[in-house]
């Protein structure tokens, strides 16, 4: 989360104190003072998770970034700014929201002259809204609904309803986050009547958490039947929202490709090693940005069918950072770091030899036509301060990073020294260039 805050009129806050806190001034969320971040006295719950974004500091723009948002981060924040003679503060609210797992629907059996259907989901914040709907979108009355809060502050919910027998019916279970105005949905079809024990009865199950795949590599989307039974003679259909336009179709004992979505031609495979045990995962090759989204795993035999919904997240690790020394600026040496090919938008950090974060002079991230992000960042190194620097670019979804380092020697060679170097001084000149060159340790 980025909490905005700025000064009016516009002026530099580089030499001011910027303090973010809750109600206690002394126990701060983040403190910038004397031209650098201060961590002594920081609230323990925020250690290693906060950053004052300094790209607009000279214009009085002092937003706070908080990483890895938790339920406990929700609440009121104060942005306090002070120079030698005056101070001001403003108050803002942070609301936290969590999207839980796709609803898992199960057919439990006969009850009260009908068929009991149960819907479960977990990982929501705040407490979600739960609805049953029929094929026309009309709300259906629930038999029961239970919502409980776990130790991590997230909510899980379970709801049930009774479907009258002999009423062929498509049902959907919707769970909605009212803060984000987003929902997750799963559907089930109740046939004429609940099959007797002599018929096939099963639930289709997928993962409760999203599947994460790396660009250019393969992804396997898990799906299986419960209880365990053979799916060799069933229909297995993977699709997005359109049933007829499928991602992959297995039917009549073999893969079917007529009607497959063109974007998936030659890139999908139903893994059949566990088919006789009801294990029907889908492999997608050469993952692309466009593959990200919701997938439905639909399985049907002669008398019954079920489906489940899962999410595929796509991530890209870009190139190793390229560091270059650009020249003199503002009484120091300007060092530049570039990288491309990231998804989603990466986090960029400069660090010193001890792993401490260094304030950047500027940072620019842009999205290319292929949907991938490239980033450029720069900082100023004070001259005559021998320094090891590293540029770290991190994919927060994969929790992986790439890093390159550079050693800045005493000072950047001036143009006059370079131009006056003679053959006799060539060895010394080359040594100086090596000291200021980039060492890539990615």
Automatic annotation (TrEMBL):
Domain of life per record: Eukaryota
Subcellular location: Membrane
Main location, first listed in the record: membrane
GO molecular function, one term: signaling receptor binding
InterPro entries (UniProt xref): BTN3A2-like_Ig-C, Ig-like_dom, Ig-like_dom_sf, Ig-like_fold, Ig_sub, Ig_V-set, IgSF_BTN/MOG
Chain ranges of the Ig-like domain: 1-93, 103-189, 195-301, 321-407
UniProt xrefs under PANTHER family: BG-LIKE ANTIGEN 1-RELATED, BUTYROPHILIN
Protein known as: Ig-like domain-containing protein
